[in-house]
Amino acid sequence: MYIGIDLGGTNTAAALVDDEGIIKKRSSIRTDATGGAKTVTDGLLDVCERLLSDTSDVLLAIGIGVPGIVNDEAGEVVFTPNLPLSRESIAQQLSDRFNCPVRLGNDANCAALGETIAGGAKGTRDMALITLGTGIGGGLILGGRLQTGISGAGNELGHQVIIAGGRECGCGRFGCWESYASATGLRVTAAGFMETHKDSKLWELCAGMAEKIDGKAVFGAFRAGDQAAELTVAQYIGHLGAGIVNLINLFGPELICIGGGISNNWDCIEAPLKKLADTESYYRFSPEAPQTKIVKAKLGNDAGIIGAALLGRPI
User: Fold this and answer.
1) Residue 267, CA distances (Å) to 55, 121, 185, 271, 283 in order
2) Residue 307 pLDDT > 90, yes or no?
3) Mean of pLDDT values over 2-14
4) Residue 270 pLDDT class (50, 70, 90 cuts)
5) Of 167, 106, 163, 162, nearest to 138 (Cα)?
6) What's the pLDDT score for residue 217?
7) 254 domain-assigned
8) CA distance 133 to 100
9) One domain for residues 256 and 128
10) DSSP for residue 154
11) Is residue 117 within 8 Å of residue 315, measured between CB atoms?
12) Does residue 136 register a pLDDT over 80?
């Protein structure tokens, strides 16, 4: 049995996971950063203790998905923006307590691994996972190996530039995919079309404050035939597709898995996104060759937990 932990800035979710990626027991706690690295680590120890209570299963390993850059070999969190763990060695403390190996991984990489082992990409050896939330997370598996780059900071897929000199991104660059195809980017696009469509139902849905519009409202109005919402979704899919086609052209994966909150609107996104990929991908010039499939992720928030638990398991 393995323990997988998804360490977040607000909550820490964990589970006992078997070798096939099936969750056997869950636990969660509030992430307590009030005392710095110590209270965060104490929380990790506590959630593991809770999972191991009332079980006779042998614990083979613990894996932790971290929202940031990690050095798995050193057991160190190199950098994380929302937790006081930068340059902290946390793996050894858990290893000493539970007498087992402890692995660290970036949370999006763990989610990609989870989807490959037990989710929408099960059975593939070449895949990319895209999570569409406040930002864009990404994970990449090629040849059955999780790709992390030379510093453990690879797969920042959301920070490919799709529009040179475009919107400013939180990373400091301009025109990043994340600035357009994340939920944040969708809201910015919607606000722009609302300004030119004063009769849009979107104004009512955000109480007259364009900055308050969200994805749920946009896609709801889209389904109802609102013109501003239709224009927003069309432009959004164009931006999303630009990054997807880049990934297909760069890596030629067997499959691209799309998760995150926006993927809940798959009925609105799927057909035009796949059409765009078929139209613009370089692989259209060899239609007889296998083509990249684009699918919705299946595991939701469990993907990161399962992937973290099985970080050391071959695919």
Assistant:
1) 42, 19, 20, 8, 25
2) yes
3) 95
4) very high
5) 106
6) 97
7) yes
8) 34
9) yes
10) -
11) yes
12) yes
Res 32 pLDDT > 80 = yes
**What strands lie across the sheet with 102-106, from one edge to the other?**
23-30, 11-17, 2-7, 61-66, 102-106
Helices 107-118 & 302-309 angle (0-180, nearest 10): 90
If one compares 80 and 233, the residue with the highest pLDDT of the two is: 233
Same domain, 221 and 74: no
Residue 78 located in a structural domain: yes
* 65 and 204 share one domain: no
How many Å apart are CA 45 and CA 12, to the nearest integer?
11
Say yes or no: 248 and 100 in one domain: no
The pLDDT-based confidence of 34 (bands split at 50, 70, 90) is very high
Q: Which amino acid is at 238?
A: G
- The answer to whether residues 188 and 169 touch, using CB atoms and an 8 Å cutoff, is no
Round to whole Å and give the CA distance between 47 and 248: 39
pTM value?
0.90
pLDDT, the chain, mean:
94
Q: Do residue 109 and residue 230 come from a single domain?
A: no
User: For residue 139, is it within any domain?
Assistant: yes
Number of Cβ within 10 Å of residue 31's Cβ equals 19
- Print the domain residue range for 54: 2-115+302-309
Residues in Cβ contact with 94 at an 8 Å cutoff, skipping those fewer than 6 apart:
41, 44, 45, 48, 62, 64, 102
Whether 157 is covered by a domain: the verdict is yes
What pLDDT score was predicted for residue 246?
A: 97
For residues 57 and 148, state if they share a domain: no
